[in-house]
Protein 1
Amino acid sequence: MWGSKKDGQQNGDDTHALQDDRPSSRRSYDRQEPDERTRLLAQNPRRPTSDGYLDPDDPAVSPYNLWSIRFLRYLTVLFLMISFVWWVLLLVSIFVSPPGMHSRGSGFFNFAYTCLTIGNLLIAVIFFVAPARAMRITTTIIAVLLLIDMIIILAVPRLRVEEGWVGIASVVWATFIAIWCIITDRVVAWGKREEEERLTGRPENRRTLKEWLAVLVATIFTSIFIIIALLMTSTLGIRARDATLGMYGERIYVDGDKYEVHLACVGNISYTGGKKDATIILESGETPSEYDFEHWAYASYQNGTISRYCYWDRPGYAWSDNAPSPHSAGMSADALSEALAKSGEEGPWILVSAGIGSITSRIFSSRHLKQVTGIMLIDPMHEDLLHRIASPGRGFSLWAWGIISPLGIERLGGALFKGRTREDRVYGRNAYQGGKFIKAQLQENLVADSLSKNEVVSARNIQSSNTPLVIISSAIKCRTDSEWETKQKDLTTLTDNLVSWDVVNKAPHQVWQTFEGRTVMEKRLGELVRAASKMDKPMEP
């Protein structure tokens, strides 16, 4: 018995000694000096497994344990905040241009790049601890497309001018953020693996259902971003192609060299009876002058009805840059005045305008009473009807179309499937799809019933009463809109020298699109030129 007890005691002592020598035992675990891992274990309610490692599903197994990962997340959140502030500035600049932030292009492209930047950063922040190869691949594709966009903008002079430093900064920042998201995801994946090896003994290859859902959602969103970036790149390519289209005339800096407007003149200065013949100044309506309105003027020039005419594009139309916001009809009239002065054009002038362009012409006339010797208005907009184009619904619709215009869905479809040309997109039937044109329409909408209306009402009070006046109206428009007909009649009283008022049968709002409309317009223009010549002062050639 004694021997057995002693032997048993000895065996027990040996067993305890053996247990004390095992570093992974519970007693050794309790007595060892605390380190980062044991502190995590002490703070965690779950106990480690028998080998001293944590369960892979334990919340303590996180890449956030590494200061480098936490620092990356802090930077990512900081970049998100910076991008949001920039996004707000760009959104405001569409309506009111902050000093130094005016974009001579539409401003919708830089806004779209910033939206894409915020989208990438949100995905990175929300799914920060769920790195995946699929996300890195999709984000890499986005980064490549953005890099191509940056190269196109910097390489094409016209695009570089239109986008300006704001657009360039936006696309560069978007490219940098896309690359940052790739690097961040890769580093987080490394940190996750490192912490799993340290705290669980092996890297974890499986994912929980929650992690799989996170990866799926993130991949879906980044795939959508790929489609958006691809459409934007394609639209930018079309813009680069359109920038090669030659123009007649020249671009002239106006408003303190903030932007350029396009002005072109056809014909030579001529004199009749010692008097300088009036130059016709064309002001388009709802479309660029080059879209068939100028063609009618050219036909009148060839027929000898007029000897010389000039046409221009209001800011945002055709080859003209967008003006800073807000922009009223009076500001357009001032831009035209400056462009004519810088190009050396002098009166006398006969103003021929259509639709909404008649508002600008009337303001221009009131500010050049001595030089304007005749006014011809073609189905003109009345100041009392400006509220129609200033409706909030129309404004929101224009803003929404502007926001998605960088995708260029209509423009790409027209180019690929309908054979639309550069001419169609720059000043033709598809010009309304461009971001510049949409912004110009939005600018008109925002101030039509306020600034522009006040300017044209003042112009009416100033207008010289003896200036010869011709009004040509659309019969279709008058028959379908009694208020329009009433206001057309009211416009015949702008001056006391009404040469004629014609309501052209079967003619639409764009009267010149019918043969009868063009015939009446050319006939009345000839009469206006003769009436205006009686008002000209003799000028030596």
Note: Residues 1-32, 537-541 have pLDDT under 50 and may be disordered.
Protein 2
Amino acid sequence: MSHSMQHDRRGLRRLPLALCLALTLSGVSLWSGAARAASNDNNVEWAGLFHDQGPLYDSAPEPTASTPVTLTFRTFKGDITSANIKYYDSADGQYHWVAMHWTANDATGTYDLWQGAIPASSSEKYYRFQINDGTATAWYNAAGITSSEPSSGDFFIVPGFTTPSWMKNGVMYQVFPDRFYDGDTSNDVTNGQYTYAGCATEQHAWGSSVTANVSGCNTAVFFGGDLAGIDQKLGYIKNTIGADIVYLNPIFASPTNHKYDTQDYYNVDPAFGSNATLQQLITDVHSGANGPHGYLILDGVFNHSGDSNCWFGKASYGSITCPQQGAYQSQASPYYSYYTFQTWPGSYSTFFGIGSMPKLDYGASGSATRNQIYGNSGSVMQTWLAPPYGIDGWRLDAAQYLDAGGNNGSDATNHQIMREMRTAVLAVNPDAEILGEYWGDASAWLDDGSEWDGAMNYNGFTQPASEWICGVDESGNSASLTPTQLDNWLHGTRADLPVDVQQTMTNFLGSHDTSRFATRCGGDIWKTYLGLFFQMTYVGTPTIYYGDEYGMQGGADPDNRRTFDWTQATTANSAVALTQKLVAIRNNYPALRTGSFMTLLTDDTHDIYAYGRFDQNNRIAVVLNGTGNTETVTVPVYEESMTNGSQVTDLITGSKYTVSGGNATVSVQGHYGAILAQ
């Protein structure tokens, strides 16, 4: 399989019906607890097959060039006659075979474990398994199980590629700065303080409408939230919630409240504070004295600048004095090459036709624009990564559109820019996070370790979670999923990505670009509970958009950016209390962060979805109830090798259950969950 063939895995979020049925079998309890009656009968029993790249099945999920990778594969006991690893090595463009050997039974005696090793080298590889029982053969890869050899969907081995451990193991809290907390009233934007794009600024009282008094001027509405306010509320983020990663929407100088039209990439907007305020915030986020040691990610708006940026020079506001004319003002400007003009000055490339957001032209490798944004020590990205600031990563806004010549990305130039950007970022901080914004299948930027660490997981979490729990997609359009469809979608989107990328995809219920989750769910706080259970136990980095932890309401932009209600920011609020408990559970159990994921049950009749998360220390069964009714659920926990007579504890209620007949039976409230651990 060529490297390009790996890209065929895209679009696998819904798998073929035959495969869906095969995968669903693994969630059906067909036995009474005795050893499975598997045999060498020229029939591979698909329900017994399992492998992923969790710590029990992959000896080195992030191998170096000198690390061999030992793979473990599970079958029903006595079911197969042989198993092989077949892997493609990008170094020689050839397939290679590794014979596997039986190594052990699992603790229940239900399963055989087979092993084989892929030799160490620096080249990227893709692997699948061939499983044989006499004349019968099954194939198993990341996309699932098939009777004939697959042509795509293999597991990845990417030597030398690592994603930040703190991102894999963290919980992220996203803040839209103007709407979080006003920590310094002296820098509040006042009524009529300035006019931009025909709109005079409006100062609104905290908790009042986000809609402007003047039609069409919503971006001119300010509430006074700032960096000092975030700093003063770090105790809430770190201790009450338990999050250790703070992601800020844009904070650099800009005339609008959202700041996605940057005026000056080197200075914090005066309404948010100063560079010194940011430096203090970073120090306090990093401190372990006010809660867990934390990390800070900034929003990098590098596809376009604002038209008030000195580089462009079309509009002006505030007190910034430009030392030289911008590209809009003079074709002799040193920044003229930063932009693309069709007819200077009036016709130029923009972000989706928004004239106040002229598109940056990245030109060829080594261009002035590339050097300014990321390519040298004085560049924007390196400045904020380096001392005295030391941010921990960048979220890349509209990342697929960065390009040359006014084109809108997703081509060879975009990928070249992203590879150069990664090199530049990691040269300053080898442990920095590079998080791309992309709403679809982002595997083109993620599958070889040369560009992003992860992406905002609209495709692999936000949309399917919303459709299952709320019955609408992330934009509020009617759409629904059964648990089986949900599981197939999630399986396909995980298969698109290397395992360490899966673990850093940001799983959020909503963002600054979607309507609020609570609103999509009709204001039912129990559905927010269910969303929180799912978010905190699934593969990836849980990301809380400020206010979602208490069920903040809000429709489409700008209503999804309401001010934070601080009367709700206490564990007296049941959703906040649940968030605190779920984050603590996640933080206490590495299995929920970097452990295996195994589907245990998809019950479409009762709207139940259950899955296992496990590693060498703990086995956890997560049970999610999508109905409004209390349901008694029988979960086949033997599939996680939980033995009969052993106990599991629901980490939410403290209730204990005994495994019997290979199952744990638990009662789960409507739109709620159970987390059964041993």
Note: The domain at 592-677 is CATH 2.60.40.1180 (Immunoglobulin-like).
Protein 3
Amino acid sequence: MLRPSRAERSLVSQILVLALALFGGLALALALIFGGAFREHAQARTGAEIQTIAASAVQLLSDGLAERRREISVMVQSPTLWREGLDSAGVVALLGRARAVSPNSLWIGVADLQGVIVASTDGLLQGQSVAARPWFRHGLAGPYLGDVHPAVLLEPYLPSPASGDPLRFLDLAAPIQIDGRTVGVLATHLSWDWARQVSERVLPSDAAARGIELLIFDKAGALLYASGGRTAALRAAGQRLRTRPAAAAQPPMPWTERWMDNQEYLATLAPAGAGSPVAEIGWQVVVRAHSGKSFEPARNVLVVAGAAGLATALVLSIAAWFGARRLGSDLAMLTHAANRIEAGHAEVRIPPASSSKEVLGLSRALSRMTQRLIESQADLERQVAARTAELEAANAELAKQARRDPLTGLLNRRGFEPKAQLLFDLALRGGRPLCACMVDADHFKAVNDTHGHAVGDQVLKRIASCLQSRMRRTDLLARWGGEEFVLLLPDTSLEAAGELAEGLRLAIGASTTGAVGRVTVSIGLAQIAPTDRTLQALVERADLALYRAKDMGRNQVSSLAALL
């Protein structure tokens, strides 16, 4: 029979080892589970964020190139202006206004059929031959968009970009035709520093601290641009876009890869929509996040959770050792009592054991440990929610800057005015007709008051649909505000505009919308006048004509005669 002291030591040792193994293993397992879950959550959040950044960058790049291309298309489609001569004062003034509208267009010029510059902004390269330049050769045949290239002829005349990188351009060109005959080429050199401006708009303010970079590669995988002023350094290091792993074969799913600097990044490649300028030129926009910086909070959480768990396990093991001693004492007491009973001492009673309190204390300690881990997880989730809220706020800010009316899908006033200003300037310079048409839904307040704003929105969408279906490709349509729309009609006399407006009025009046039924519109027309100096003057006259139509009983077209 073992002595009580020896039995006590054996029991304590076993319980102590078991407690250390149990509590230590549980603490480490929970730390790994919660730390791993947080890392996966952080990776998913970062992946979603860089996907949004990459998609926004592709959209801004595509919109910028499409806008420049539309400006060139509008300018070359003005034969009246070009008949005055490729180097006329009107052409020079037009080039200056076009560059003022687009500050990133550092140079706009006109070359004759021999490739000699006859007109340009600030007179740069005037009289020089550009016959060997790709934009001239391709521009004779049709609209041309060239990839990024170093400045060749203009580098001595233009300032270096704000980024400190060498001066580089994108070339856009189109043939100038009169009566179907090509007479020259109009070209613009778009500063590649524009890419830096795009990245500054889409990247978060703490992108550098979090290791988030935006990279643009050409269709061959060569680096064109890197955010943070790292273009020159990465190009010198030979950075290229390598083939993505099979797991990331379907864009825009983020993938993890070790890049040429031997650092691991979470990266995403934003797809460009078919037919967009970015897809046409073959650019590939990549946003990557440095794994070490992006997931450092997750590693810190794992270390803290592990340390806290081990510390808690040590405390619990000590408590278990004391509990084992009490349990040993209880067993010794019970054994002593049993021996005395066996010896015939009938008065001896089995003493009540108190070790169940230690078991209860252990359960409470485990509950406290788990509660601490749950509180740590809740704190982490609050941090994730805060970061998500910041991202949603940034997306909301981008949405505010949109140039489209969210209800009808038409241009809003902000998107309408710069395009309309260009048409106005071309018409005024070339002496060409231009009409403004203001359209307003009759009794629209009664529709909202009677049927509710949801039905009123349906009416506005129906009117917008009718206007879109009957406008011409060269016309410019926008929602001016409330129930009012504006339509700009280039190369259209007041008489022709009146016929078009009457057709719009009849078409809208013939349509119906749900419970409202038939809704009519009043239309005001005005034609550009030689005394006009601003687009606003033309629009205000159209608005006056609209009020006159309202005063005359609504559901009709009213016009102010042109002064030409």
Note: Residues 4-46+297-400 form one domain.
Protein 4
Amino acid sequence: MHRGFADFLYISLTGVGIRVFGNKEELESGKEIDPQPIQAIEQSKVSIPVISNEYASSESCLPELNQMVECMDNKNRIIIPIFYYVDPLDLRHCTGPFEKALGEHKKRHRDGNLLNHWMSALRRIGELEGHHLHENNEGSHGEVVKQIVHQVQQKLKKQDLIVTKHFVRVNSHVRSIMAKLKVEYHKGQAVKIGDTGVTVLGIFGIPGVGKTVLAKYVYNQLYHLFDACSFIGEIQAKINRHGIVSVQNKLISDLDEGNAKKFDRSEEALSHIRERFRAMKVLVLLDDVYNDEQFSAIVGDLEGLCPGSRVILTSQRQDVLRNINGAKSFVLEPMKQDEALKLFCRHAFGTDSPCEEFQKLSTDIAAATGRLPLVLEVTGSSLFLVKSKKAWRETLTALKVSPHKRVQAALEKSYADLDTNAWEIFLDIACFFSGMDERIPYYMWDDLKYSPSSTIPALQARSLVKIREDKKLFMHEILKKFGWEIVKNENRNEPCNRSRLWNHKEALSVLNRKEGTQNVKALGLKFGAGPTRIFRCDNFNGLQNLRFLKLDRANICGNFGDRLSRLRWLDWQRCPGGYIDSLKLNLPELVILDLSESHVGNNWRGWDLLEQTSKLKVLNLRGCFDLTATPKFPASMELERLILEDCSRLEDIHPSISNLEKLVSLNMKGCHRLYELPDWGSMRGLKELFINETSISQINFQIGSMMRLETLSACDCEDLTEISDSIGCLESLTYLSLKNCRRLSDLPVGIGKLRSLQFLDLSNTLIRELPPSVKNLKDMKVLRMTATSIREFPPDILNLEKLEEIDFSSCRSLEGKIPDDIGRLSSLAILKLSGTRISGQRSPRISGQRSPSISPLSSPEMGSS
């Protein structure tokens, strides 16, 4: 019977022009296997095994099936199994007729590995999606054949897009993208579309990171699942040459398989797209989309696309999809160093690792490429079979100085599109501020009217800068080198005529030669250990437009007059503290003063600067270990950020701190000799207070003060024993950490008034119970009480419906059971109880929510469960 069905399928496939290889007569037992069927399978894009009860009895079918599976794994070939009156479970477990047949083969063959391969192939086929023929659908075999023919046509209708053969790290990316596209992906194959809606995915990243290659690879895995598909590459170039209508016509032609007419007007083409493809499930890949207007002009508002359609685009700009509700994003990062080295070696040596002689050079070159696939491939290919170490070193030097020319060209297009404010901020970050807290340079940019609130997000959207979770600016090395090249090109021969001097040797030369010009906006020095350098005021002649100056260990003296009158930021870290008597500075525009790790004490004459700089917003005194008391703060100061972190000898906060009505952030971490908090006075604007590792014994606030405080961090205050009930006045507090306050045993009842609190960390304290008032903390999301003395699961927290994480791990006195009604915590995702004496564990099924992941429980009696 199955032979008749196979013949019918053969005729139907060949009838629509598909070239088919069909197994003729099964070979008799004991005869050698003809290699031609195996070769045909290797060359075939699709294999269709018809699995019947007798299938495993054949000594030709099993090797062929094994070859199909190998081609699926190694060459991304497609298998469409047909289960002809058999249960796939019998294949997966090698039971029923397959167990008997394999037993007969075992008698004839001594090669156990061969049988294992055959059994593995049967199991793999049993796991695949296929077509099932059985008694209940005997009358519809013709319909099944029709479905199979259509499926094969869809899989073969287009050729794969050309992508590199040297893939590294692609599989994890593909799995993630398939999940975002809501496509069922199993064992390297896209099986079916798991959601009937229209899904849009943007793949973003800097030039050269491999967006297009990854998108093409995903497209090749997917297109057989759709009625029609289209790939449009280099969209920017097409639009620049022939306008947006050329891209629309290409899309229409692809989806209509070349039969569509061409349109002259964009509006008509878009209207056709909306009407023509409502009933077709389509896959569209748009490469290098510039902005959201362009995207909308090509595919419209998506309402004209059939449910089940998928649209993928690549772009450097992450705001392309800002107007598409529910759009997904995938940001492609540069490769890891080991991955980059492997990819480079595949192109440079044809192997996964370098020969010993070129080990160091290969590692250095892979790092200097910025770990970008495009640069790795081009550079590796250019060095293939090149044996000269001199040539390799020259390549390394060139990569260290500036980006590869192809990446440079792509970045220049993106940079040219920025406005003047974005240019300024981009170059500042590239030359000076990568790795810095983004809130600090913000004040300078804001004072210069560079609109950082809108400009920085615009740079982020173009993948030109990132802000990490710790709020630090990050710029990829390739982008920094690109920025350096822009500045160098302002004047290749005379650094004194460039806008920024970030290179120490060039900056030092300009000062020593007194060659400063009005073109220089920012200058940075970087001295190592050694004698202190002293610069006189005349070294700064001509630098009247300087807005950022980094002295770093150097000292200055003399009457500067108006030489630095436009300076916004003086970065004088490690200031020696001497020669100040002969120094006269006029800094009326200064907004940031950084004296980190400087030898400045209470009597330092430089504190006079605070009287002059009425615009000062940031004062950084981190690590000034000579400081025993803070300076006096003038009543006119508009200071917003005061950093006293690691001033390890600081004992007194001058009462004038109450003058700082506009202070937003006060950081006193690591001030070990600070025993009391100051009188806050009218400091009502404070939002962040860090008192970690101080020696305070009590936290007390005046009623009506600190109304805007959002963050209070008092970690590692080992002398802290009391928190006043006044803490309840902090109505805006969202973050409270008392971690490692090892003498703190109680929380005040007033903590229940913190209605905005979202994060509470009481880990490693002596707290035994939470006050009942915690039930009022309705916004709480995270509660951490690791290694506390808590004895029972706090019943009052079961009222906190927004709670997402509870951590009671290592609470060795905690016993009892997880409450039966923990299901009330509908948002709970993480419950950590390891190292407790909890005697039972529940995994409640919460309606509409995922069950929380509960860490393994353990006790001396139970062990682990």
Note: The two ends are 53 Å apart (CA to CA).
